[in-house]
Amino acid sequence: MPTHYDDVWLAGGRLPISADPPLARLVKGVETVASIRAEIAQAAKVATMPAVEVVPYIWTNQRVLICGRVTALSRGDRSCFGVQIPAPTALCTDRAAVRALLVHEFAHWFYIATRAVNGSEAGDKEGGVLDLRNEGLTESDTQIDAEDWFGEEDARRFIQHGDPATLAISSQATGLETHFYVVTPRMGDTVGGIDIGDDVKAHIRRLRTKRARGQGLSG
How many structural domains is the chain composed of? Predict the structure, then answer.
């Protein structure tokens, strides 16, 4: 049974003993996530979307469900930033909820990519190293303008953390505790590179030029 679809894959993990382990459904969820990712890309201003890793756990932080995050993913012998989602998100049958969650996480990834490209091409003295941990950024600070990157419908439906649009994911997580371990993922201490496609780099440069022209006109 395939577990990898064009930069969307199922990570290894430890599962509790279950009379009816939903592995087949989880693999099907990976396929669904890959399909939604492709749909987002087809409508977006760039063709390349971040890689997505599905983790066979339920994530919580202080009893609140975590539906996804941007972090460093292990790819062979290196770490590279992408999007991780836990089992409840991959198993959610509400495609609109999963799509909204993915767009939200992709927006974080595009923010990091933009900072990396702009910093590198501005000749930052840190040599291309990007560390956002001490900048005091909020959740909404680390996103791009959705209309600059995504299709019209995805931009219109863009959500922020805790949006009711993701309640479908939370509701479908109920009862999965017998099939997946509930864990709190380590946050904020991951490091890695970021693979940025040529189309994404070109789009970042176009947006940078557009903003510079706009600031020149307003000045």
Answer: 1
- How does pLDDT run across 116-152, given as a tens digit for each residue? 898 888 765 444 556 666 555 667 778 899 999 999 9
Q: Any residues with CB less than 8 A from the CB of 21 and at least 6 apart, and which?
A: 15, 179
- Name the nearest CA neighbour of 36 among 87, 86, 88, 106: 106
Contacts within 8 Å (CB) and 24+ apart, 34-37: 34/5, 34/6, 34/8, 36/95, 36/98, 36/99, 36/102, 37/7, 37/8, 37/102
Find the distance separating the first CA and the last CA of the chain, reported in whole Å: 59
| Residue 217 belongs to a domain | no
pLDDT in tens, 151-169: 999 999 999 888 888 899 9
Q: How far is CA 104 from CA 69, 71, 98, 139, 153, in A?
A: 9, 14, 10, 11, 13
The pair of three-digit structure tokens given for residue 18, joined into one six-digit string: 């279950």
Q: Note whether residue 3 is domain-resident.
A: no
Asked whether residue 142 is assigned to any structural domain, the reply reads yes
Between 112-116, 143-147, 196-200, 208-212, the lowest mean confidence (pLDDT) is in 208-212
Structural domain containing residue 174: 8-212
Query: 219 lies in a domain?
Result: no
Q: What's the CA gap between 26 and 8, in Å, rounded?
A: 13
Q: Identify the DSSP state of 44.
A: S
Contact 168, 92 (CB under 8 A): yes
What is the C-alpha separation between 120 and 205, in angstroms, rounded? 12
